[in-house]
Amino acid sequence: MHVLVVDDEADVQPLFQQRFRKEIRNGQVVFSFALSGEEALGYLAQNPSKVVLILSDINMPGMSGIELLHIIRQEYNSPPPVVMMVTAYNDQENYEQAMKEGANDFLTKPLDFTALKEKLKTVAE
Amino acid sequence: MHVFSFIAAFLLLRHLLRFVKGTSLAPGWETILNKASWATVGVFLVATTLFQDGMADVMGAIYLIALLAFFTKNPDFKPTFPVLQAFFPYASVIAVSILVQLFAREFYGEWDNYFGMAMIAAFVYIFASWASYRKGQKELEKERQKRLYEEEQKKFISIKKTELEIIVASRTAELIVQKEELKKTIKELQATQTQLIQQEKLASLGELTAGIAHEIQNPLNFVNNFSEVSIELLEELKEGPLQHLPPEEQEHATEILQDLSQNLEKITHHGKRADSIVKGMLQHSRASTGQKEPTDLNALADEYLRLSYHGLRAKDKSFNASLQTEFDPAVGQVPVIQQDIGRVFLNMFNNAFYSVAQKKKNLNGSFEPMVQVRTKKTEDHIEIAVKDNGVGVPQQVLDKIYQPFFTTKPTGEGTGLGLSLSYEIITKGHNGEMKVSSEEGEFAEFVFTIPLENS
């Protein structure tokens, strides 16, 4: 399963790689990373239909996660990737907007990796 | 010559008549004097026609002297004495001249002219002294009038003065009342101002707190996540590659790994602690974002009272406290942000239970812990009071208790955000008020109000 993680914090990359090291070693998951919405769109354009799941932060400089979601649902929606939005603790406004734009799930920081692994399993099945 | 005597008598009677007119003597004397004066004219005519000059002179003289003697003696006419006096010289002159005529006729014939002149002079004297008497009387009268007028004026002034004094007194009283009212108003304004400043400070502190929390959250997440994943990595290392080390190295390596994982656990532990503080701080920023819904405040208070009590009992089995509730059924459904008010209740009750538990620990004896919650509906607001008989709030920290991070609990037991958050929820989120009263070692009572209008 190919997962694209979009977050402007570069340290998210080693964190995911370490957290999912077993899954990556087993070849269950492949991670790609983008530091901005724009970069994510560039990646999607180059690798169409490859990405099954997108995990995106909402508050990022430049394009926000919500904008990214909107464009994905319009331009890269065949087949529709699973999109999970990630944002700070308890942000009702963003939650509603994300759901309206067609997000599949809404996660709050700090990420609970055990729960995330479970979610990935359901998506894979 | 006798004509002068009768004129004098007539004038005397008329004067006395004028004197008695309008006084208390009038009834007895007025008619008598009137008649007497006209009788004088009658006597004069009789004396003139029937008698010789000499005889008429004698009659006139006797008549006048008799009248003078009578009225001078009569006490009723004492005030007229100055006027009567004016007649004495004339009476004397006429008496002397008659006596001289009777007993020294030649002498009289020789000095006839002088007697006549003396008599005329005495007669004129009557008029002169009478006139001067009248003038004096007039002046006296004038003086009297003037004095009367002045007295009236004085009376008038004194009345005015009293009136003015009364007015001044009432004005002064009014002014004093106004002054007192103004003083009170100023005091109230000052109190409100202090309160506003305090609120403003707390509000900006709350905002700052939330802002800081937001910034700290991301790096803190990394700390926690990396430390957790590092513990996992160490586990892996221990189970995998470590096994392949030669046995003499293995022991040393295991020791180091032990320390490393212990350190990482410490990092995780304190990271989690910081995380819970950050979460508390973040609640400041969302204190007023929730939706207000009609809520049964009595039920909510009761629910959280029990929740808090059993929460504490779970941690400390020996703890016991009597719970007293006094719910006003009129409170009913109140539009509030349920979650937020619930948090306020939880904070209040947790603090109350903590306080009584603390006191019990200190006293160790016959202390009966008690936590009380009271609700009341008034005309325009709901009042909720939470009271405990615990350790109380020391006077010197009373104005600090709503500041974020202010706590009297030992490190790690309280974040110092409970009351600051509650304060913000009540004042900012619900436009209410929060007050505290306490006596150290005796009790603490928190009272908050939620206004009812247009909420």
Descriptive overview:
The complex is a heterodimer of chains A (125) and B (455). In chain A, strands 2-1-3-4-5 form a five-stranded parallel β-sheet, sandwiched between helices. Chain A has a single domain, classed as Response regulator (Rossmann fold, 3-Layer(aba) Sandwich), CATH 3.40.50.2300. Chain A is 45% helix and 20% strand. Chain A is built from six helices and five strands. With 125 residues, chain A is α/β, with parallel strands linked by helices. In chain A, helix 3 packs parallel to helix 4. The mean pLDDT of chain A is 88. Chain B has two domains: 156 residues, no CATH class; 166 residues, Histidine kinase-like ATPase, C-terminal domain (Heat Shock Protein 90, 2-Layer Sandwich), CATH 3.30.565.10. The radius of gyration of chain B is 61 Å and the shape is rod-shaped. Chain B starts with a helix and ends with a strand. By secondary structure, chain B is an alpha+beta fold. The model of chain B has no long low-confidence stretch (mean pLDDT 86). The longest helix of chain B is centred in the middle third of the chain and has 128 residues. In chain B, strand 6 and strand 7 form a beta hairpin. At the A-B interface, helix 1 of A face helix 6 and helix 7 of B.
Helix and strand content put the structural class of chain A at: alpha/beta
Order of helices and strands of chain B: HHHHHHHEHEEHEEHEE
Return the domain count of chain A.
1
CATH topology of the largest domain in chain B: Heat Shock Protein 90
Quick one: which chains have the greatest interface?
A-B, 13 and 17 residues
Cα Rg of chain B: 61 Å
Largest sheet of chain B: 5 strands, mixed
From the alpha carbons, calculate the radius of gyration of chain A and give it in angstroms.
13 Å
Strand order of the largest sheet of chain B: 2-4-5-7-6
Low-confidence stretches of chain B: none
Q: What is the SS-derived class of chain B?
A: alpha+beta
**Counting H and I runs of at least 4 residues, what is the number of helices of chain B?**
10
- CATH homologous superfamily placement of the largest domain in chain B: Histidine kinase-like ATPase, C-terminal domain
Sequence stretches where pLDDT stays below 50 over 5 or more residues of chain A: none
Which geometry of chain B do the CA atoms define? Answer: rod-shaped
CATH class of chain A: Alpha Beta
CATH architecture of the largest domain in chain B: 2-Layer Sandwich
Say how many strands of chain A there are. Answer: 5
Q: Roughly how many Å apart are the termini of chain B?
A: 124 Å
Quick one: how many beta strands of chain B?
7
Please outline the major beta sheet of chain A.
Answer: 5 strands, parallel
